[in-house]
Amino acid sequence: MGFLSDDELAQAADPQVETGVGPAPRPWPTDPRLDVGLLAEGDRRNVVDKYRYWSVEAIVADLDRSRRPLRIAIQNWEHDFNIGSIVRTANAFNVAAVHIIGRRRWNRRGAMVTDRYLHVQHHPDVADFADFLQAGDYRPIGVDNLPGSVPLETAKLPERSCLVFGSEGPGLTEEMVALCDSLVAISQYGSTRSINAGAAAAIAMYHWSLQWN
């Protein structure tokens, strides 16, 4: 879930339309954060204007100065296409890290390369993820409409939360549910049993942000 930038809208309407900015006029500034290749060829990436022509490393270093303590975890058992969109939203909220649990390879299509600007950590299983949480004093909060879950809109989320999401369809595994400190669900008023996992993740991150902005 997420709004397209003006560049993305233009490119979607006409694939031949160039987005971003072209080559930088000379003389080039001597800022060490700038990438010479981008200065010479142009910067067509989906980044905010502040980061035009910056190297990936410089962008990550700058984002690290303002990372929020929120972490996002995703169970990756089915190569779910929603993982990419969750990662993209996590980048938008500048979370501390995204944790992929299960398969190391995940569907990056929806991320639109935003994972380059995030810290993405892999855990082979729930036990390894649990060890990480304990060492970092993070509280896992499962986001799923399961019995015992409380409405997200009434929940007070810890600042050092790790919001945990399951695969589209099956949701969180029983092992992960047992690990979570609590479960929250997004209240719904229509006929569908659940909403898209990527949309749920965006709502949950926004809810945390309202409490800890």
From TrEMBL:
Region Disordered: start-end pairs: 1-29
Q: Where is the signal peptide?
A: none
Question: Which intervals hold domain tRNA/rRNA methyltransferase SpoU type?
Answer: 70-206
One annotated GO molecular function is: RNA methyltransferase activity
Keyword entries, A-Z: Methyltransferase, Transferase
What InterPro entries would the database entry show?
Alpha/beta_knot_MTases, rRNA_Methyltransferase, SpoU_MeTrfase, tRNA_m1G_MTases_N
Gene3D superfamilies in UniProt: 3.40.1280.10
Keyword Methyltransferase in annotation: yes
Pfam families cross-referenced by the UniProt entry: SpoU_methylase
Tell me the GO BP annotations in alphabetical order. Answer: methylation; RNA processing
PANTHER family according to UniProt: RRNA METHYLTRANSFERASE 3, RRNA METHYLTRANSFERASE 3, MITOCHONDRIAL
Stated name of the protein: rRNA methyltransferase
Q: Which organism is it from?
A: Microlunatus endophyticus
